[in-house]
Specification:
Nucleotidyltransferase, domain 5; alpha/beta; 128 residues; six-stranded mixed beta sheet; globular; single chain; 23% strand; 4 helices
Length: 128
């Protein structure tokens, strides 16, 4: 399984903190559980000066799922329409190290209303 996690810090990987805002994260950790490896990629989506939306950017890496604390409804819908499952932590999780080998701390999001950040603004503020 290959999952993306929005993160704040690039290195060291073990200390990379999970970002509270999926689309505005500075980086994404792409965890490949079948190969036990992680790749850190910069967010080059539209929110960070790129040409594509965060969901389209993440989908281009062939992920099966995204682990996020919250995300807006448009992002949720774009990802799930592509067959990408959305997961959220069920317990307090600060770093990707806590999730790397133990996915028991996440559950699949089945009700997007309880998960959505409710952010429909122009993003001129910080979501952390």
């Amino acid at each position: 399984m290959k999952v993306a996690i929005p993160i704040i810090l690039r290195e060291p990987i073990e200390e990379s903190k999970i970002s509270g805002h999926f689309g505005r994260a500075k980086y994404y950790a792409i965890l490949d559980t079948s190969e036990s490896k992680v790749e850190i990629i910069p967010n080059q989506s539209r929110h960070m000066g790129g040409n594509t939306s965060p969901p389209d950017y993440i989908a281009s890496f062939g992920v099966d799922g995204v682990i996020a604390e919250k995300m807006g409804k448009p992002a949720y819908e774009k990802l799930t329409k592509r067959g990408i499952k959305i997961y959220t932590p069920t317990a307090h999780v600060e770093t990707i190290k806590e999730l790397w080998h133990d996915f028991s701390k996440v559950s699949e999001v089945e009700d997007p209303q309880s998960f959505a950040s409710g952010c429909d603004c122009d993003h001129n503020h910080d979501h952390h």
